[in-house]
Amino acid sequence: MKTFWIKLLVISVLLNFIACKKDTLEPTDNTTNTTNSPNEAANSWVYDQMKEWYLWADLLPEKAKTDLTLVTGKDGENDIKKYYFYSLLNDYPNTDRFSWINENITDLTNSLGGVSTSFGFTRTAVYLDNTQTTVGFFVSYVILNSPAEKAGMKRGDIILTINGTQIDKNNYATLLASTETATFGLGELKNGAFVSSGKTLQATKAVVQNDPVHFWKVIEKGDKKIGYLVYTQFISEYDAKLKTIFGEFKAQGVNELILDLRLNGGGYISSADLISSLIVKNLNTNNIIHQDEWNANITKKYTSYSTPTKFSNQANNLGTLNRLFVLTSNGTASASELVINSLRPYMDVIIIGDHTYGKNVGSITIKDASKPVRWSWGLQPIVLRTKNSKGESDYGTKDGFTPNYLVKDNIYPYKPWGDESEPLFKKALEVITGVTIPAEVTVNARRSTRELNSQVLELHESDNPDLKLKDMFVSFPK
């Protein structure tokens, strides 16, 4: 049997898995071409794939009872009465709020790998005034080597205008999408209000590869050597870099770890399993990380898919951690949640921040395998559910994991990564050391941040919609 590498992209959303499964796996294609409708052949193919792989395949209606004349689908579309793919989903968008389709398989696979055409930054959009008219973009993340970073943009910047246009409630969702080159008008906090600083940055969209191993450092506090890692997406191409960082942590004697997953919507399950193996206390390759539940058809045909995934032998495993601190947001999803759930049976996992997204299921990428290719659709249906070594998988609701310490990430502008007054990081340090850290540390002792309790319109949103994924997924062997 050929090795089947399961990858989990946790999203979001994106779910990718560790290389642990064996069996030859290819999408079946029993589609009968018809000429009754321009959509019927593609929809018939979509149905056959869903009947084979979909986690809730037993709940699908008979193909003859579906409307094969519907438009096949649209990425992120919610109108199940109009689009065939979404009409098949189980109780969409409630029970299955995760399966999706993209009209271009290349765009789909690129997004799962963190590749996009974008400026390369993530922002939170918040109303700045009581009338809820003016909006500010607070930059939370800038991709390394992206056009935004090269232009000088950084976490903590405030964007008030784009190409001279004030951001407001009517245009905040469209200004970035409608321009290839943008001049960003920056703001500052002055006398309690966010006003123009007179500074601008200019950038042009380009193909960007997200480097998810974004920031790390070691902080010494008494007898505590605290490793801090900002990890934004589970992408297997960066596994070697991840191992290297943990090697540095181990060499420096790290005995506490803060894993910042607040911007991590998912990724390869293989990378989630790798980081679990680097973190777990008393690493034992006979111990189970997680087990995957597939539909009855797949479980019968490919028995090894339900074989539990076990920890891998990692030379840079930290070894002696008694606990793990995870920083979270509502966008912490799928593969990120898999790490939390997988490690809980073996060590204390302390969650600081907000409720996580709530995604305990994973998907696969399916494309037309015929020669020549008949259509460019890419399907990303949910095909499995994960549970940990104790059989636990109870976080798959919209409440996700409940934090041990609920800390709102609503102090703007955002503090730099590793700043000890940054709210979530600050709380983790306080729990670790038992010492209270001042709410803010500035040179002139004046407040340079402001808490905003007004409505958040977009939380940690990429400037490219294709990177909104919160998913875990399996890929077919090459």
Automatic annotation (TrEMBL):
Which domain of life does the UniProt lineage start with? Bacteria
Keyword hit for Zinc: no
Listed PANTHER family: CARBOXY-TERMINAL PROCESSING PROTEASE CTPA, TAIL-SPECIFIC PROTEASE
Annotated source species: Emticicia aquatica
Give the keywords, sorted: Signal
What is this protein's record name?
A: PDZ domain-containing protein
Q: Where would one find the signal peptide in this protein?
A: 1-21
Pfam name, any one: Pept_S41_N
InterPro entries of this UniProt entry? ClpP/crotonase-like_dom_sf, PDZ, PDZ_6, PDZ_sf, Pept_S41_N, Tail-specific_protease
Q: Which CDD domains match?
A: Peptidase_S41_CPP_like
**PROSITE patterns membership:** PDZ (PS50106)
Q: The PDZ domain covers which part of the protein?
A: 105-167
